[in-house]
Every structure is written in structure tokens, then in C-alpha cells.
TrEMBL record:
InterPro entries: Integral_membrane_TerC, Integral_membrane_YjbE. The keyword Membrane applies. The keyword Membrane applies. It is a multi-pass membrane protein. Pfam families: TerC (PF03741). This is TerC family protein. It is found in: Membrane. It comes from the Bacteria.
């Protein structure tokens, strides 16, 4: 434990916390979108359990991330999963309103948070692992400290979504953007994307457009009979 007194330990800890502040924005959006339809008490539980479990999952994922990223098709599947999650989060709000909000809905929100965080963290954890330099205590401390940051960010996002509903659309679009990026980051497409760098941004924009466009169309179709 002598390394705790070494300046490099604290420098590494600051690096990890800073990386998590930068990278936690999209995770806070996912958590806020997943929990926004729950009653206030269940919102708090979903945010706390979802954030805590996501950080634990990220610690485990850091150990195996480098190997996982070498697998072809993994990020293609993960990116498609994010597109589906973004679509579900954009279209499920109206369906969940009313008296049907219960424990099942809260568990579904936590499950959505975990799945989305797992996919979105594949690339991010490599930066965190590099900052930790193989020090597991440093890794766990840095990620654990990031829990309040994600919780605060998610709580703030929910309040903003209630006040400015357009943020829900922008949040779903962000998830679609990350989904498109994730697909193009797959090892199978590496050479193709390297030869055509613009494809990375085109795929990300297409993912955002798909989630927002299809999601709004489905919303309109689902609410049409009521009018």
C-alpha cells in the first residue's frame, strides 16, 4: 500500500476521475431517459442502482475490454443494440404513463441502463485502464468516485427533460449517434473506415437520424388514434 503515498497514484486518480467526467455525459443521458417515466421515488432508486451497477460492470469490463475489442462483429451487434435502445427510450414514454408504473418498470429501466452502459463503455474503459496503469485499487477508486457524478448528471438531465421535452429527442439522437460510431469501430470494418474516414461521421449521423426519425414517426402513429 506504499504506492498510495506516491504522487503518481494521486495523479492517476485525478486522470481517471477527469476521464469519467468527460465520458459520463452520454451515460447520464441514457440513465435519465430510462428513468424519466418512473415516479420520483423509483427514479432515485433506478438512478442509484443503475449508476452503481454500471460502474461495477465497467470495472469488470476494463479487465477484458482489450480482448473483447479484438472480436469481429461485437461492436456491430453492440451498435445495433444501442440504436434499438435509443428507439425504445424515445417511444416508450407515452406507453408507460399512467397507473401502470411499478417495480417491473423500474427493473426494466435498470436493465436498459446496464445494457446501454455495457455497449457504450467498450471503448471508454481502455482510456480509464491506461490511466490506472494496471493498478486495480486506483481503477476501483476512480470509478467509484465517478458514481456521484453520474447520479448528479442523471438527476439534472431528468429535470431538464421535464422542463424542455426536446432534450428527450436530442438524448435519443445522441444514443443513435454513439450506436452508429460503435458499428463503424468494429474490427471487421477497421480497414474500410481507415480508407474512408468520413464514413465514421456519416454512420454516426445516420444512426442519430434513424433513431430520431423512426422514433418520432412511431410516436405519431401511436398517438394518432387518440386524436
Amino acid at each position: 500500500m506504499d504506492y498510495v503515498n506516491h504522487p503518481d497514484f494521486w495523479i492517476g486518480l485525478v486522470k481517471i476521475i477527469w476521464i469519467n467526467i468527460i465520458l459520463s455525459g452520454d451515460n447520464a443521458v441514457v440513465i435519465a431517459l430510462a428513468a424519466r417515466s418512473l415516479p420520483p421515488e423509483q427514479q432515485r432508486k433506478a438512478i442509484m442502482f443503475g449508476s452503481g451497477a454500471a460502474v461495477v460492470l465497467r470495472i469488470v469490463l476494463t479487465v477484458v475490454a482489450a480482448k473483447l475489442l479484438e472480436l469481429s462483429f461485437l461492436q456491430i451487434v453492440g451498435g445495433c443494440l444501442l440504436l434499438w435502445i435509443g428507439l425504445q427510450l424515445l417511444t416508450s414514454h407515452d406507453e408507460e404513463e399512467g397507473a401502470g408504473k411499478g417495480t417491473g418498470t423500474m427493473m426494466a429501466a435498470i436493465r436498459t441502463i446496464l445494457i446501454a452502459d455495457l455497449v457504450m463503455s467498450l471503448d471508454n474503459v481502455i482510456a480509464v485502464a491506461a490511466a490506472a496503469g494496471g493498478n486495480m485499487l486506483l481503477l476501483i477508486l476512480g470509478l467509484a468516485i465517478s458514481i456521484p457524478l453520474v447520479i448528479f448528471g442523471s438527476t439534472l438531465m431528468i429535470k431538464l427533460m421535464e422542463r424542455f421535452p426536446v432534450i428527450v429527442i436530442l438524448g435519443a439522437g445522441l444514443i443513435g449517434w454513439v450506436g452508429g460510431e460503435t458499428i463503424m469501430n468494429d474490427k471487421l470494418l477497421h480497414g474500410f473506415v481507415e480508407a474512408n474516414p468520413a464514413l465514421h461521421y456519416l454512420a454516426a449521423a445516420a444512426g442519430a437520424a434513424l433513431v430520431v426519425g423512426l422514433g418520432l414517426w412511431l410516436q405519431k402513429r401511436n398517438t394518432a388514434p387518440a386524436h
